[in-house]
What does this fold into?
Amino acid sequence: MKPFLVQNRWIILSIILITPIGFYSKFYNGYLHYWVNNSLGGVFYEIFWCLVLALFFRRLTSFQIAASVLIATCILEFLQLWHPPFLEALRHNFFGVTILGNAFTWSDFPYYFIGSFLGYFLIIKLKPVPVSTEISSA
It folds into this structure.
């Protein structure tokens, strides 16, 4: 069996590439910055989490991973309508806002779907195919 890092090198490399792109989308200050900061970043967020799940949950299919990430993100979006003290405390720092969000917006949902869709196809391309240990008798 190949070591974990070798077997998953393309997923790990993709995570290493998508993470700074996602963070940069939050700080981008150029043309269409409002859209990049508040909407397009959702695409990178979905792809990131699809890759993370693909890395650690190898038995899940690409569809199961993308659907799980999409459902979880939609739940998190609706949680932004709820403001209990413990969630507000989490939302008062950069990582809390980045992961949990701070304002419900219907317009975020299409970007979640696009990101999960792209994550689905990326996982298909990158996820290592399990090698069967059975010896077939021919």
In short: The radius of gyration is 17 Å. The helical segments are 4-7, 9-27, 33-56, 62-79, 85-90, 94-100, 109-126.
